[in-house]
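Let's sit down with a protein and look at its sequence and fold side by side. We need material for that, and I hope you will provide a protein of your own picking. Once you have written the record down, we can walk along the chain together.

***
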Amino acid sequence: MKNFNIIPIVFITDYNFSIPTAVAISSLIANKKKETFYKISIISADLNKDIEDKLYSFSENENITVNIVRVNEDKYQMFHRKGHHVSSTALYKFEIPNLLPEYDKIIYLDGDILVKNDLSELYNLELNNYYVGAVRDMTAEVSYKIHAKIPVDEYLNAGVMILNLKKIREDNLTDRAIETLYERGHDYVCGDQDVFNFVFKENVLWLNPEYNAMIYNLVLENYTIERINQFYDTNYISIEQLIKNASIIHLTNRKKPWHNKFTFMNKEWFEYFRKSPFKDLTELDNFETQTWEAEIQCQRREQELVLKNKELNDLSNRILDLKDNIVEKEILLHSIYVSRSWRITAPLRWLGTQITLLRQHGFTGRLKAVIKKIVRFLIIFLDSRQKLRLYCVVLLRRTGTYNYLRSFYYRHFNQQHLPNQPLTVDKLTPRARQIYNDLKAAIQKNKKDNL
């Protein structure tokens, strides 16, 4: 094997995740260089013989060996918390240095990944005194601020790691990790990942995101490529270029390709599934696949809906703010109107208004307006008091001024309060109409008698 580049790889799985893990191994083997020799270790506690035999069959490939390491799950079952997607199986990561004592350095891979390139370059990175080589989790830091709860300044994603097993053993980090999980685990959201961030204390060789491309998270959070480049100190032109250049794509979405036909990398995942020892499972083989373009369209539509909802929420908040502002102004106006100063200054405001009107219309115009108001008031007043009105009419007729005043009013003022048409019989009251008819009949009879 002197001519081969030997690279130890470790996976951790259980019965439920055995098929995704097999697909990840299929992608690892399909994209390796000829001179690369992968020594694959699979840590598990509950695999049956049929699944183990299928996983061992990967050894039939050139320059591939598979070793299944069985562990006792009781040790970590107590740490499994309901409501979180991290199972007790994932916590076996802490035991890797002890379970694989023959290695001083190893690449750990989650089962929900697809390997697109040979991993020799990744493995050959010098760790020196770093505990681990890993990629920062942008979503965890920027959107959820998980790093602040640890607390660390930079937060690694534990789905892909180059582990310096020698240094981890020397500093007894396995026991420290288990102790941390026991003491602080109830405060952690991401289980083993949070613990690794705590015990490594950022003694981490930060890797390029191509070695753990969490594309789904980046798209879901709507990060621009400029923001991604700033975070990772990269110079990608687009998300599509990051996907193309990625050596390992991490399927961080909860809806995995083997569960939902619309998820990211569904088509690629099934291509590797058909190269795996589980390819004869027809219920998965008949599962309808979708392209990355369809997934991108779905994501864009989701983002559009999110933006529209945000706009609606913003408008609703603005409307509520305006309503609150109106109420505040109404309260302020009411307090002004009922104030003593407002009542005291009322004559001054009236005087100011009159001066303004005098400037606009002149003295003659204002005098006419005042006279009109007085006359209208008197007419309305007399209309509501019939006896007083009749007395005034009789008085004006006796003085000979009635016709003059009536004509003057018609020329200069609104005529709505005086009738300009003769009174008709149909407008009389029933009693007045009877008197009118009696008088008319008497007059006609008198005329006949005179004839």
